């Protein structure tokens, strides 16, 4: 997977090649042999060329509306290069997947562990708060931007299905591999190598998910959502969090380590030992990405030294610039109004304050909790940006191949929104946070169902001042999706309960359930097309 870094150079070269061959030249070159024909035929040729150009421009505009991207013009690349661009797109997807994986493991999990230990939170509560809210941010944004309540519900239900099946299967496989590694190394305490799960915790999570699904099924049966019904959904999530606090747990809360020793170098920045040219080349290719991410995301590993001080001081301004780039605001936004000027000054003062109020360690400064909060927020923003880029890449290919909007919203969009759940779940298992990962598998869908969809419907009802119709006869059955989610949640509970007995059967079973679900989505699309709706 590391060789995927070469895709960056290949993709950039492909873009340069594509831009030099514009739409007009490609169209006129096809008609070059026709120059000696009659003037009337030449006029028809020009008109035909202009029509083809207008169609090509319209296609690119439609593609960019479906798959917007700030980093690479995937629509122009695919349109100009055709099927030859697909291998380059695949390599770029590998790079983005690597960015997601390393960002989750190196940057997203440490702030979670720090604040869980600082607040003495149990792993389950940490998974239902920090992890679920962070991973649920992309889904919530997509729901708020959906053109209708039906589209929002379809995306959230398909996203819940993807989290339970795909992310759940990945977490089960990660725990299985961790246990197998412990067997190979003959560790004396295998339970410590693979953290056991609290059965009461995930049964409680599954019960609340069943309650949320039952409430959603009742709303779909009535097909109308009022202000009170929408308000009930976020309140249910608050009650779920309260049940986690009241649930007895004999395990001690997460505690900060006492004896850390000297500060190690930040991951990705230390030059590998001499002698391995391939490893040195890969390090040189990956080094800029690590520098960029450490500038955006302050270190949260309990250590403090001069590099950590410098990166933490640069982070407030870097996060502001990253937001300006992500939302295409430009540097002029910083001086557009008194409010934007105030935001810019706050970022600059925060950067100066972090540097001046700290030294080169080893003791962490008083502002360290604030920098870890910034790390948590900026890691979510970066994961969201990478997931958005990956989703745009896949949506462009799907649009080029003629896949419908319904299939995109049911497959590619949930995949992009659920990538954070997958990579963070695997990263937490690797760092002995399996309980938090297992809780997040249920808390994430609960957050998306009750908070994301609930707030979305609440805003629509407040805006319209009346009840909202959430399903009609022509729309694919959302109730069938709720039923599939119930099956997936039940299978995940059984997988956790009989994890050791099933082995690799459980991850394969979870992924198989999702494949059956995808086949059902495609069949529903085919039925709609055949019926002419």
Topology:
Elements: H1 6-20, H2 23-30, H3 39-66, H4 74-81, H5 86-118, H6 123-144, H7 149-185, H8 190-193, H9 199-222, E1 224-225, H10 227-246, H11 277-296, H12 306-326, H13 338-356, H14 368-400, H15 405-410, H16 412-430, H17 434-464, E2 468-469, H18 478-497, H19 499-502, H20 505-531
Antiparallel strand pairs: 1-2
Helix pairs in contact: 1-4, 1-5, 2-3, 3-4, 4-14, 5-14, 5-16, 6-7, 6-14, 6-16, 6-17, 7-16, 7-17, 7-18, 7-20, 9-10, 9-17, 9-18, 10-17, 12-13, 12-14, 14-16, 16-17, 18-20
Write a structural description.
It is a single chain. With 533 residues, the protein is mainly α. It has two domains: 2-83, no CATH class; 84-184 and 195-531, no CATH class. The chain has 20 helices and two strands. It has a two-stranded antiparallel ribbon with strand order 1-2. α9 (199-222) packs antiparallel against α10 (227-246) and α10 (227-246) runs antiparallel to α17. The two termini are 43 Å apart.
Q: How many E strands?
A: 2
Strand order of the largest sheet: 1-2
Q: What Rg is obtained from the alpha carbons, in whole angstroms?
A: 26 Å
Please count the helical segments: 20
Q: What is shown here, in short?
A:
This protein is 75% helix and 1% strand. With 533 residues, it is mainly alpha-helical. It is a multi-pass membrane protein.
Primary descriptors:
single chain; 533 residues; mainly alpha; 2 domains; 20 helices; disordered N terminus; CCX1 protein; monoatomic cation transmembrane transporter activity; CaCA_antiporter; transmembrane helix; NCX_ion-bd_dom_sf
């Amino acid at each position: 997977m590391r060789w995927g870094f070469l895709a960056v150079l290949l993709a950039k070269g492909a873009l340069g090649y594509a831009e030099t061959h514009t739409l007009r030249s490609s169209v006129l070159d096809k008609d070059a042999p026709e120059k000696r024909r009659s003037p009337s035929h030449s006029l028809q040729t020009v008109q035909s060329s202009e029509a083809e150009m207008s169609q090509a421009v319209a296609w690119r505009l439609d593609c960019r509306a479906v798959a917007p991207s700030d980093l690479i013009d995937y629509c122009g690349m695919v349109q100009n290069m055709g099927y030859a661009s697909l291998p380059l797109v695949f390599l770029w997807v590998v790079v983005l997947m690597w960015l997601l994986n390393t960002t989750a493991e190196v940057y997203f999990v440490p702030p979670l562990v720090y604040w869980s230990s600082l607040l003495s939170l149990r792993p389950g509560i940490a998974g239902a708060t920090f992890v679920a809210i962070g991973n649920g941010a992309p889904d919530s944004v997509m729901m708020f931007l959906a053109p209708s309540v039906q589209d929002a519900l379809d995306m959230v239900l398909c996203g819940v299905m993807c989290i339970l099946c795909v992310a759940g299967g990945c977490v089960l496989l990660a725990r299985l591999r961790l246990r197998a590694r412990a067997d190979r190394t003959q560790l004396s305490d295998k339970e410590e190598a693979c953290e056991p799960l609290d059965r009461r915790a995930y049964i409680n999570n599954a019960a609340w998910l069943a309650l949320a699904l039952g409430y959603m099924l009742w709303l779909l049966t009535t097909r109308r959502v009022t202000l009170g019904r929408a308000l009930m959904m976020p309140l249910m999530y608050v009650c779920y969090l309260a049940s986690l606090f009241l649930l007895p747990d004999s395990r001690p809360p997460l505690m900060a380590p006492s004896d850390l020793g000297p500060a190690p170098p930040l991951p990705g920045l230390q030059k590998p030992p001499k002698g391995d040219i391939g490893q040195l080349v890969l390090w040189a290719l990956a080094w800029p990405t690590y520098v960029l991410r450490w500038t955006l995301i302050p270190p949260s590993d309990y250590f403090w030294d001069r590099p950590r001080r410098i990166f933490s001081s640069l982070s407030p301004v870097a996060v502001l610039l990253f937001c300006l780039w992500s939302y295409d605001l430009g540097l002029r936004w910083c001086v557009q109004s008194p409010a934007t000027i105030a935001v810019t000054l706050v970022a600059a003062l925060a950067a100066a304050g972090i540097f001046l109020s700290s030294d080169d360690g080893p003791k962490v400064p008083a502002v360290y909790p604030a920098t870890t909060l910034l790390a948590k927020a900026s890691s979510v923003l970066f994961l969201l940006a990478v997931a958005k880029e990956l989703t745009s890449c896949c949506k462009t290919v799907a649009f080029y191949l003629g896949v419908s909007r319904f299939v995109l919203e049911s497959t590619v969009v949930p995949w992009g929104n659920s990538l954070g759940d997958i990579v963070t779940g695997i990263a937490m298992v690797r760092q002995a946070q399996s309980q938090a990962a297992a809780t997040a598998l249920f808390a994430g869908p609960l957050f998306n169902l009750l908070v994301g969809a609930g707030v979305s419907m609440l805003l629509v009802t407040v805006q319209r001042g009346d009840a909202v119709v959430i399903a009609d006869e022509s729309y694919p059955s959302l109730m069938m999706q709720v039923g599939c989610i119930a099956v997936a949640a039940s299978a995940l509970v059984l997988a956790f309960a009989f994890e050791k007995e099933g082995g690799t059967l459980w991850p394969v079973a979870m992924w198989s359930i999702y494949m059956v679900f995808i086949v059902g989505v495609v069949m529903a699309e085919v039925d709609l097309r055949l019926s002419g709706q």
